[in-house]
Amino acid sequence: MTAYLGAIDQGTTSTRFIVFDRTGRIVSVAQKEHAQIYPKPGWVEHDPDEIWRRTQEVIQQAMEQAELRPKDLAAIGVTNQRETTLVWEKSTGRPVYNAMVWQDTRVAEDVVEFSKVVGQDRFRKRTGLPLATYFSGLKIRWILNHVPGARAKAEAGELLFGNIDTFLLWKLTGGTKGGVHVTDVTNASRTQLMSLKSLGWDRDLLGIFGIPRAMLPKIASSSEVYGEATLEPILGTRIAGILGDQQAALVGQTCFQPGEAKNTYGTGCFLLMNCGAHPVQSNFGLLTTVAYKLGAKPAQYALEGSVAIAGALVQWLRDNLGIIEKSQDVEALARSVNDNGGVYFVPAFSGLYAPHWKANARGVIAGLTRYANKGHLARAALEATAFQTREVLEAMEKDSRIQLHTLRTDGGMVKNDLLMQFQSDILNIPVVRPVIQETTALGAAYAAGLAVGYYKDLEDLKANWAVDFTWHPHMEEGEREELYASWKKAVLRSMDWVD
């Protein structure tokens, strides 16, 4: 049997290609960043052509690094930044506009307008999602309404929409020469255009948002053969798995039982809990989403708490303030002080996501005195991720009526011992880091491997999961609650900043 699986991990700040062996260990990896484009306050864009170039480059590099040929790969999976919205010409492959990133808030006025009927939860029962700037539907509408000629072309069947997974799959399988126009249920569930019940595009919602059905991809499962790659380094390799990045991490963490949860610390922070074969509607500010659908088996659902800014705040300290040279320097700077010095940083750069859903919130640094220095600011930035996670976890326990006794973690920030210890302290539960920390790419590889018989079943995947390190809480109860109460005061200060 072919030895390896490949995974394209197209994230918010970079693209990677990782080759895994059967045990989930990394054989080869290549990574390249792409530009973050900020045309106006609140606007966030990516250049789709740059993302495609980076994807080709990292595939080439990773394959050459390990001296691999296409026949060495059993299949390739794709995982992607979700909700980032892209519309391109079917005949040329040219994007009609830059990709509108999930963090982009330019449709905030549309959210207000659509919420006038019934409120922000107008479509929640159908889609599992509140009206928010986060999701793809309103972004598609913005492109059609603001790019000259786009709506007419879309209605004539000349334009295609996709989140990044769909765009890459189309490109990988031939593009204008027969490229496959498909998405999976996890990505489709983030558009606010798919019915959670039918797992198909909702005709009523398409009418309300004014989006032509012809531009939307076919919705498939997360684990099946979609097509074969036409790109030289992976020519003929089957593309057989697609999962939105957070759902991919859930699969990579082998959270296959209801009640099992993981938290991914990346650009944003995303806590997902497996809820089983039936969607659980949230009453406490979470999202109901498709967790995964493996081939012909029934879809599994999840509750999700989405935090917009986590690792991105560390990047902001690096790029905008210049108080650290490299992102990993933040831990040493934060350790230069014993505590946060009374400073709290609410990074509502794109408004507040779960559990508040306040698009008009903006970032706030509270509690500043002459005593505060850059060490306190660094510490407050790290603590912000842990505080936001506690808010989400408390909402999740109320919605699911399941108390979490441990938290599985992954993502780039789990290498930060100070953050992980504070996370355990502020939650008052153990926090676990697995041996294989590239769980997002691994989840996509797992989905592809299941589709082609590389793995027999979920038990094969579970056998790969193992603990690398566990942090245990050491903070006194009084200190924990005092810190959290101050955080919540700071969150209130960030709300309703934009009229």
Helix tally?
Answer: 16
Strand tally: 21
What structural class do helix, strand and pairing data support?
alpha/beta
Strand sequence of the main sheet, in spatial order? 15-16-14-13-19-20-21
Q: Please indicate the percent range of residues in DSSP E strands (runs of 2 or more).
A: 15-25%
Shape: globular
* Rg, alpha carbons: 22 Å
Q: N-to-C terminal Cα separation, in Å?
A: 61 Å
Unreliable stretches covering 5 or more consecutive residues: none
How helix-rich are the residues, as a percent range? 25-40%
What does this entry look like structurally?
The chain has 499 residues and is an alpha/beta fold. The chain is 33% helix and 22% strand. It is built from 16 helices and 21 strands. The protein has helices spanning 48-65, 108-115, 124-127, 136-146, 150-155, 164-172, 185-188, 203-209, 245-252, 311-321, 329-335, 374-400, 417-427, 439-451, 458-462, 477-494; strands at 4-10, 14-20, 26-33, 45-46, 73-80, 85-89, 99-100, 159-163, 182-184, 218-220, 223-228, 238-244, 261-265, 269-276, 287-292, 300-307, 344-346, 364-366, 407-410, 431-434, 467-471. It has a seven-stranded mixed beta sheet. A hairpin with a 7-residue loop joins strand 15 (287-292) and strand 16. Helix 9 (245-252) packs across helix 14 (439-451) and helix 10 packs antiparallel against helix 12 (374-400). The longest helix is centred in the last third of the chain and has 27 residues, at 374-400. The radius of gyration is 22 Å and the shape is globular.
